[in-house]
Write a structure and sequence with these properties.
By secondary structure, the protein is α/β, with parallel strands linked by helices. The protein contains nine helices and 13 strands. The model has no long low-confidence stretch (mean pLDDT about 95). Acetyl coenzyme *A (ACO) binds next to helix 2, helix 6 and strand 12.
């Protein structure tokens, strides 16, 4: 039996950092640093410049993961990217990334599951490795969600930022990734969506912005994530006390605290980075993972629970022995 082992991680953030105060002042928002910190935990986010996008940020994160793992790009036999902000409508961002890495012929595709994109991509990569179809996989989450929000809308523009995270997985005799669980429920599409695309209102796309019913998203996220965390623990026959680190989707500190409460996990075993980079959608879990590995919180052998929740709704979790 083959499993996926987590070899290394990497991350990238755009050059421009924007504080709450700068965001409010620049766009004349009726809000304050205090309101944003109290309701979301967010203090700063990064905004991509015109020459930065999911491919360039994904490449930086991927190269850092490769260097840390001691791999060359040529060692990869598969690239999967979670992104909803692909540089172009097509080719997909993973293919554009493959070209930048200079490894023609290596299969590459994107998974679009909004903020759950990385969890979905990780789960797909795990299936490829378990089935013997791939042995060395690059999984990336990269987004430029700042381009989807109306900068004048205080209820959404404060929440999102841009960035990328990457992990390398390799085939191993022991886990590694113990269990992944994915879910979706399209009946909730209208609570969080972007109102145009190739199939609808395409020509108005550049004037459209993300639409969200924040407080309803909040409540359902806490419920669904709590359920999938318990389901994942049951599937792995692991108790919540055995989790060393919860690495949650970094959307809102209050959602993270509600989940920690439901799992009865003290906050000193929860990785929180949302204060630094806001909600970077599918980049948020690999960003948090990389930050906590590099600063020494997460150690080899630790048991990690990853989770994410996004538009759709989509959600999922992964239990990993690091
Ligand atoms: N500054 C000041 N006031 C604000 C701001 C702001 N930035 N944003 C909203 N308000 C106001 C509202 O207008 C409302 O005013 P009203 O009572 O006069 O109508 C009041 O604050 C309360 O609004 P709520 O929406 O009830 O506030 P809530 O405490 O729910 O916080 C928030 C809003 C932060 C958006 C919260 O609902 C949230 O984080 N929801 C989850 C959203 C999310 O994480 N989405 C992404 C997850 S999925 C994914 O990652 C793609």
């Amino acid at each position: 039996m083959k499993y996926s082992r987590l070899v290394s991680t990497g991350r990238a953030l755009p050059r421009q950092l924007v504080t709450n105060e700068e965001l409010a002042r620049t766009h004349g928002l009726d809000t304050s640093d205090q309101w944003i910190v109290e309701r979301t935990g967010i203090r700063t986010r990064y905004r991509a410049a015109p020459d930065e996008n999911a491919t360039t940020l994904g490449e930086q994160a991927a190269r850092q993961a490769l260097e840390t793992g001691g791999w060359a790009a040529e060692d990869l036999d598969l690239i999967i990217m979670g992104t909803t902000s692909s540089e172009l409508m097509f080719p997909n961002s993973a293919v554009l990334l493959q070209a930048k890495l200079g490894i023609p012929g290596v299969p590459a595709f994107s998974v679009e599951a909004v903020c759950s994109g990385f969890l979905y991509a990780l789960s797909v990569a795990d299936q490829f490795i378990r089935s013997g179809q791939a042995a060395r996989v690059l999984v990336v989450g990269a987004e430029t969600f700042s381009r989807f929000v109306d900068p004048r809308d205080r209820s959404t523009s404060i929440l999102f930022g841009d960035g990328a995270g990457a992990v390398l997985l390799e085939a191993a005799d022991e886990p590694g990734i113990m269990v992944t669980r994915l879910h979706a429920d399209g009946r909730y599409a209208e609570l969080l969506y972007f109102p145009s695309g190739p199939g609808r209102n395409f020509r108005s796309m550049q004037n459209d912005y993300l639409i969200m019913q924040g407080s309803r998203v909040f409540k359902i996220a806490v419920q669904k994530l709590g359920d999938v965390l318990e389901e994942t623990l049951r599937a792995a026959n692991v108790t919540k006390e055995q989790i060393d680190w919860l690495v949650p989707h970094q959307a809102n500190l209050r959602i993270i605290e509600a989940l920690a409460h439901r799992l009865e996990l003290p906050m000193n075993r929860v990785v929180v980075t949302v204060d630094q980079h806001a909600n970077t959608s599918s980049a948020s879990v690999p960003l948090a993972l990389d930050i906590a590995i590099r600063d020494g919180r997460i150690q080899r052998g630790d048991l990690l629970m990853l989770e994410a929740f996004g538009g759709g709704f989509t959600w999922g979790a992964a239990l990993i022995r690091y």
